[in-house]
Amino acid sequence: MTLQQLKYILAIVNCGSISEAAKQLYISQPSLSNAVKEIEEEFGIEIFLRTSKGIALTSEGVEFLSYARQVVEQAELMEQRYLNKKPSRKLCSISTQHYAFAVQAFVELLKSLDENEYECTLRETRTHEIIEDVCHLRSEIGILYLSEFNRKVIYKLLRDHDLKFHPLFTAKPHVFISARHPLADREMLDLDELDDYPCLVFEQGEYNSFYFAEEILSTRNYRKKILVSDRATLFNLLIGLNGYTISSGVLNQDVYGGLIKPVRLRTDEDMLIGYIVNQKTVLSNLAQQYVAQLKKVIVRAGYSLMS
Q1: Model confidence over 88-127: pLDDT tens digits?
Q2: pLDDT value, residue 177
Q3: What is the pLDDT of residues 217-276, one digit of tens each?
Q4: What is the pLDDT of residue 13?
Q5: Which residue has the higher pLDDT, 105 or 50?
Q6: Hey, which CATH number is domain 170-272, 3.40.50.300, 3.30.390.50, 3.90.230.10, 3.40.190.290?
Q7: How distant, in Å, are the alpha carbons of 78, 170, 192, 197, 214 from that of 267?
Q8: Pair 298, 274: CB distance under 8 Å
Q9: 128-141 burial by CB neighbour count: b if 16+ within 10 A, else e?
Q10: Which residue has the higher pLDDT, 15 or 26?
Protein backbone atom coordinates (compact mmCIF):
# COMPACT_ATOMS: atom_id res chain seq x y z
CA MET A 1 0.00 0.00 0.00
CA THR A 2 1.24 3.48 -0.83
CA LEU A 3 -0.04 6.92 0.07
CA GLN A 4 -0.61 7.57 -3.63
CA GLN A 5 -2.87 4.53 -3.90
CA LEU A 6 -4.98 5.83 -1.02
CA LYS A 7 -5.25 9.20 -2.77
CA TYR A 8 -6.39 7.35 -5.89
CA ILE A 9 -9.21 5.71 -3.93
CA LEU A 10 -10.32 9.07 -2.54
CA ALA A 11 -10.27 10.61 -6.01
CA ILE A 12 -12.46 7.84 -7.44
CA VAL A 13 -15.04 8.31 -4.68
CA ASN A 14 -15.04 12.10 -5.10
CA CYS A 15 -15.42 11.86 -8.89
CA GLY A 16 -17.94 9.05 -8.85
CA SER A 17 -16.20 7.06 -11.56
CA ILE A 18 -12.81 5.62 -12.43
CA SER A 19 -12.77 7.27 -15.85
CA GLU A 20 -13.43 10.77 -14.49
CA ALA A 21 -10.88 10.28 -11.70
CA ALA A 22 -8.27 9.17 -14.24
CA LYS A 23 -8.84 12.38 -16.22
CA GLN A 24 -8.43 14.56 -13.13
CA LEU A 25 -5.35 12.65 -12.00
CA TYR A 26 -3.81 12.78 -15.49
CA ILE A 27 -3.22 9.03 -15.62
CA SER A 28 -4.68 6.34 -17.84
CA GLN A 29 -7.84 4.53 -16.79
CA PRO A 30 -6.12 1.07 -16.93
CA SER A 31 -3.35 2.37 -14.64
CA LEU A 32 -5.88 3.61 -12.12
CA SER A 33 -7.88 0.38 -12.30
CA ASN A 34 -4.70 -1.61 -11.72
CA ALA A 35 -3.83 0.52 -8.68
CA VAL A 36 -7.25 -0.25 -7.19
CA LYS A 37 -6.87 -3.95 -7.99
CA GLU A 38 -3.46 -4.06 -6.32
CA ILE A 39 -4.71 -2.56 -3.08
CA GLU A 40 -7.79 -4.81 -3.09
CA GLU A 41 -5.58 -7.87 -3.50
CA GLU A 42 -3.15 -6.69 -0.84
CA PHE A 43 -5.88 -6.31 1.78
CA GLY A 44 -8.09 -9.14 0.52
CA ILE A 45 -11.16 -6.95 0.14
CA GLU A 46 -13.36 -5.57 -2.62
CA ILE A 47 -13.55 -1.78 -2.41
CA PHE A 48 -15.81 -1.00 -5.37
CA LEU A 49 -18.77 -2.68 -7.01
CA ARG A 50 -18.96 -2.19 -10.76
CA THR A 51 -22.54 -1.80 -11.97
CA SER A 52 -24.31 -0.61 -15.11
CA LYS A 53 -24.77 2.75 -13.36
CA GLY A 54 -21.08 3.08 -12.51
CA ILE A 55 -19.24 2.24 -9.31
CA ALA A 56 -20.36 2.04 -5.69
CA LEU A 57 -18.49 1.37 -2.48
CA THR A 58 -18.94 -2.03 -0.90
CA SER A 59 -19.48 -2.30 2.85
CA GLU A 60 -15.77 -3.12 3.16
CA GLY A 61 -14.99 -0.19 0.89
CA VAL A 62 -16.86 2.26 3.11
CA GLU A 63 -14.85 1.15 6.12
CA PHE A 64 -11.59 1.21 4.14
CA LEU A 65 -12.33 4.72 2.89
CA SER A 66 -12.76 5.96 6.46
CA TYR A 67 -9.25 4.77 7.34
CA ALA A 68 -7.80 6.00 4.03
CA ARG A 69 -9.08 9.53 4.61
CA GLN A 70 -7.57 9.67 8.07
CA VAL A 71 -4.19 8.41 6.83
CA VAL A 72 -4.09 10.89 3.93
CA GLU A 73 -5.14 13.80 6.16
CA GLN A 74 -2.48 12.96 8.76
CA ALA A 75 0.20 12.60 6.06
CA GLU A 76 -0.74 16.02 4.66
CA LEU A 77 -0.50 17.58 8.12
CA MET A 78 3.03 16.17 8.46
CA GLU A 79 4.00 17.52 5.04
CA GLN A 80 2.65 20.95 5.95
CA ARG A 81 4.49 20.94 9.27
CA TYR A 82 7.89 19.64 8.19
CA LEU A 83 8.08 20.31 4.45
CA ASN A 84 6.17 23.61 4.38
CA LYS A 85 3.93 22.07 1.76
CA LYS A 86 0.76 24.03 1.08
CA PRO A 87 -2.52 22.43 2.19
CA SER A 88 -4.27 20.30 -0.39
CA ARG A 89 -7.55 21.38 -1.91
CA LYS A 90 -10.33 21.10 0.68
CA LEU A 91 -13.15 18.72 -0.26
CA CYS A 92 -16.70 18.49 1.05
CA SER A 93 -19.95 17.12 -0.40
CA ILE A 94 -23.47 17.68 0.92
CA SER A 95 -26.74 16.16 -0.31
CA THR A 96 -30.02 17.73 0.72
CA GLN A 97 -33.69 18.00 0.06
CA HIS A 98 -34.62 21.34 -1.46
CA TYR A 99 -34.10 23.62 1.54
CA ALA A 100 -33.01 27.23 1.23
CA PHE A 101 -31.47 27.15 4.72
CA ALA A 102 -29.17 24.28 3.65
CA VAL A 103 -27.95 26.41 0.75
CA GLN A 104 -27.50 29.44 2.99
CA ALA A 105 -25.37 27.40 5.39
CA PHE A 106 -23.26 26.27 2.44
CA VAL A 107 -22.77 29.89 1.42
CA GLU A 108 -21.75 30.83 4.96
CA LEU A 109 -19.30 27.91 5.07
CA LEU A 110 -17.50 28.96 1.90
CA LYS A 111 -17.37 32.60 3.01
CA SER A 112 -15.73 31.55 6.25
CA LEU A 113 -12.99 29.45 4.65
CA ASP A 114 -9.48 30.79 4.75
CA GLU A 115 -8.36 28.54 1.92
CA ASN A 116 -6.77 29.22 -1.44
CA GLU A 117 -8.30 26.10 -2.97
CA TYR A 118 -11.39 24.03 -2.28
CA GLU A 119 -13.77 21.80 -4.17
CA CYS A 120 -17.17 21.51 -2.53
CA THR A 121 -20.35 19.92 -3.83
CA LEU A 122 -23.94 20.73 -2.90
CA ARG A 123 -26.55 18.37 -4.34
CA GLU A 124 -30.21 19.29 -4.05
CA THR A 125 -31.63 15.92 -4.93
CA ARG A 126 -34.25 13.22 -4.31
CA THR A 127 -34.77 11.66 -0.90
CA HIS A 128 -33.62 8.15 -1.82
CA GLU A 129 -30.55 9.53 -3.59
CA ILE A 130 -29.60 11.47 -0.45
CA ILE A 131 -29.58 8.21 1.49
CA GLU A 132 -27.59 6.47 -1.26
CA ASP A 133 -25.09 9.35 -1.46
CA VAL A 134 -24.31 9.19 2.25
CA CYS A 135 -24.30 5.38 2.26
CA HIS A 136 -21.66 5.27 -0.49
CA LEU A 137 -19.85 8.38 0.85
CA ARG A 138 -20.48 10.45 -2.26
CA SER A 139 -21.65 12.93 0.38
CA GLU A 140 -20.62 13.21 4.01
CA ILE A 141 -23.92 14.73 5.11
CA GLY A 142 -27.50 14.37 3.93
CA ILE A 143 -30.32 16.69 5.01
CA LEU A 144 -33.93 15.48 5.13
CA TYR A 145 -37.03 15.51 7.30
CA LEU A 146 -39.01 12.93 9.25
CA SER A 147 -42.71 12.93 10.06
CA GLU A 148 -45.06 10.55 11.84
CA PHE A 149 -45.99 9.19 8.41
CA ASN A 150 -42.53 8.47 6.93
CA ARG A 151 -40.52 7.93 10.13
CA LYS A 152 -40.64 4.11 10.30
CA VAL A 153 -39.78 3.65 6.62
CA ILE A 154 -36.92 6.17 6.61
CA TYR A 155 -35.48 4.89 9.89
CA LYS A 156 -35.46 1.33 8.54
CA LEU A 157 -33.60 2.49 5.44
CA LEU A 158 -31.09 4.34 7.58
CA ARG A 159 -30.50 1.29 9.79
CA ASP A 160 -30.09 -0.95 6.74
CA HIS A 161 -27.44 1.44 5.38
CA ASP A 162 -25.59 2.01 8.69
CA LEU A 163 -26.65 5.66 8.73
CA LYS A 164 -27.56 7.81 11.72
CA PHE A 165 -30.07 10.66 11.86
CA HIS A 166 -29.13 13.74 13.90
CA PRO A 167 -32.18 15.96 14.60
CA LEU A 168 -31.68 19.69 14.18
CA PHE A 169 -35.05 21.34 14.78
CA THR A 170 -38.80 20.81 14.60
CA ALA A 171 -40.66 22.92 12.07
CA LYS A 172 -44.36 23.63 11.79
CA PRO A 173 -45.39 23.07 8.15
CA HIS A 174 -45.90 26.19 6.05
CA VAL A 175 -46.98 26.84 2.50
CA PHE A 176 -44.74 28.94 0.29
CA ILE A 177 -46.78 31.23 -1.94
CA SER A 178 -46.15 34.33 -4.02
CA ALA A 179 -46.20 37.59 -2.10
CA ARG A 180 -48.91 38.63 -4.61
CA HIS A 181 -51.00 35.51 -4.09
CA PRO A 182 -54.70 36.26 -3.30
CA LEU A 183 -54.21 34.57 0.10
CA ALA A 184 -50.86 36.16 0.92
CA ASP A 185 -52.32 38.37 3.66
CA ARG A 186 -53.42 35.38 5.73
CA GLU A 187 -51.48 34.28 8.82
CA MET A 188 -52.68 30.68 8.58
CA LEU A 189 -54.25 28.58 5.83
CA ASP A 190 -56.17 25.32 5.53
CA LEU A 191 -55.25 23.12 2.58
CA ASP A 192 -58.86 23.15 1.43
CA GLU A 193 -58.54 26.90 0.81
CA LEU A 194 -55.76 26.18 -1.70
CA ASP A 195 -57.63 23.60 -3.79
CA ASP A 196 -58.15 26.03 -6.68
CA TYR A 197 -54.39 26.58 -6.97
CA PRO A 198 -51.73 24.14 -8.25
CA CYS A 199 -49.71 22.25 -5.66
CA LEU A 200 -46.03 22.05 -6.61
CA VAL A 201 -44.04 19.02 -5.46
CA PHE A 202 -40.56 17.66 -6.09
CA GLU A 203 -40.65 14.49 -8.17
CA GLN A 204 -38.82 11.47 -6.75
CA GLY A 205 -38.07 9.49 -9.91
CA GLU A 206 -38.26 5.71 -9.67
CA TYR A 207 -38.68 5.98 -5.90
CA ASN A 208 -41.86 7.99 -6.24
CA SER A 209 -43.34 6.71 -2.99
CA PHE A 210 -45.40 8.78 -0.58
CA TYR A 211 -42.76 7.96 2.04
CA PHE A 212 -40.01 9.69 0.05
CA ALA A 213 -41.98 12.86 -0.71
CA GLU A 214 -40.34 16.10 0.43
CA GLU A 215 -43.73 17.56 1.21
CA ILE A 216 -45.67 16.59 4.30
CA LEU A 217 -49.27 15.32 3.81
CA SER A 218 -48.11 13.54 0.65
CA THR A 219 -51.06 11.11 0.57
CA ARG A 220 -53.63 13.86 0.14
CA ASN A 221 -55.44 13.97 -3.20
CA TYR A 222 -54.64 17.33 -4.85
CA ARG A 223 -56.92 18.58 -7.62
CA LYS A 224 -54.04 20.38 -9.35
CA LYS A 225 -50.53 19.03 -9.01
CA ILE A 226 -47.27 19.83 -10.79
CA LEU A 227 -44.09 17.79 -10.34
CA VAL A 228 -40.77 19.61 -10.70
CA SER A 229 -37.11 18.65 -10.29
CA ASP A 230 -35.45 21.85 -9.04
CA ARG A 231 -36.18 24.69 -6.65
CA ALA A 232 -35.75 27.53 -9.17
CA THR A 233 -38.41 26.02 -11.46
CA LEU A 234 -40.72 25.46 -8.51
CA PHE A 235 -40.47 29.08 -7.38
CA ASN A 236 -40.98 30.38 -10.93
CA LEU A 237 -44.16 28.32 -11.27
CA LEU A 238 -45.22 29.28 -7.79
CA ILE A 239 -45.09 32.96 -8.76
CA GLY A 240 -46.38 32.60 -12.32
CA LEU A 241 -49.32 30.30 -11.57
CA ASN A 242 -50.17 31.37 -8.02
CA GLY A 243 -49.18 27.89 -6.96
CA TYR A 244 -47.98 26.71 -3.58
CA THR A 245 -45.69 24.16 -2.03
CA ILE A 246 -45.50 22.74 1.48
CA SER A 247 -42.22 23.12 3.34
CA SER A 248 -40.56 24.05 6.62
CA GLY A 249 -41.20 27.78 6.49
CA VAL A 250 -37.49 28.63 6.79
CA LEU A 251 -36.78 30.96 3.88
CA ASN A 252 -33.95 33.42 3.29
CA GLN A 253 -35.72 36.60 2.20
CA ASP A 254 -32.38 38.22 1.35
CA VAL A 255 -32.12 35.73 -1.52
CA TYR A 256 -35.72 35.83 -2.69
CA GLY A 257 -36.25 39.53 -2.18
CA GLY A 258 -39.67 39.21 -0.62
CA LEU A 259 -41.16 37.52 -3.71
CA ILE A 260 -42.03 34.38 -1.75
CA LYS A 261 -43.97 34.32 1.50
CA PRO A 262 -44.26 31.49 4.03
CA VAL A 263 -47.73 31.11 5.57
CA ARG A 264 -48.42 28.70 8.42
CA LEU A 265 -50.41 25.62 7.44
CA ARG A 266 -53.14 24.45 9.79
CA THR A 267 -52.16 20.88 10.68
CA ASP A 268 -51.24 18.87 13.75
CA GLU A 269 -48.23 17.34 12.00
CA ASP A 270 -44.64 18.47 12.50
CA MET A 271 -41.48 18.18 10.42
CA LEU A 272 -38.40 16.94 12.25
CA ILE A 273 -35.50 18.19 10.15
CA GLY A 274 -32.01 16.84 10.61
CA TYR A 275 -28.95 15.44 8.91
CA ILE A 276 -27.72 11.89 8.31
CA VAL A 277 -24.16 10.60 8.42
CA ASN A 278 -22.47 7.29 7.73
CA GLN A 279 -21.65 5.58 11.02
CA LYS A 280 -18.62 3.85 9.52
CA THR A 281 -16.71 7.07 9.02
CA VAL A 282 -15.83 10.31 10.78
CA LEU A 283 -16.86 13.71 9.43
CA SER A 284 -14.10 15.80 7.93
CA ASN A 285 -13.32 19.16 9.51
CA LEU A 286 -15.06 20.89 6.63
CA ALA A 287 -18.22 18.83 7.10
CA GLN A 288 -18.18 19.60 10.82
CA GLN A 289 -17.89 23.30 9.99
CA TYR A 290 -20.89 22.96 7.67
CA VAL A 291 -22.99 21.49 10.49
CA ALA A 292 -21.97 24.42 12.70
CA GLN A 293 -23.03 26.91 10.00
CA LEU A 294 -26.28 25.00 9.52
CA LYS A 295 -27.09 25.41 13.20
CA LYS A 296 -26.31 29.15 13.08
CA VAL A 297 -28.65 29.67 10.11
CA ILE A 298 -31.44 27.77 11.87
CA VAL A 299 -31.07 29.78 15.09
CA ARG A 300 -31.05 33.06 13.12
CA ALA A 301 -34.34 31.98 11.55
CA GLY A 302 -35.85 31.82 15.03
CA TYR A 303 -35.87 28.08 15.65
CA SER A 304 -34.57 26.24 18.70
CA LEU A 305 -31.96 23.56 18.12
CA MET A 306 -32.61 20.09 19.48
CA SER A 307 -30.07 18.70 21.93
Answers
A1: 666 789 999 999 999 999 999 999 987 777 778 999 999 9
A2: 94
A3: 999 999 999 999 998 899 999 999 999 999 988 876 555 567 899 999 999 999 999 999
A4: 84
A5: 105
A6: 3.40.190.290
A7: 55, 14, 12, 19, 16
A8: no
A9: bbbbbbbbbbbbbb
A10: 26
Kindly indicate whether the domain formed by 1-85 is annotated with CATH number 1.20.1640.10. no
Q: What is the pLDDT of residue 102?
A: 95
| Residues listed for the chain | 307
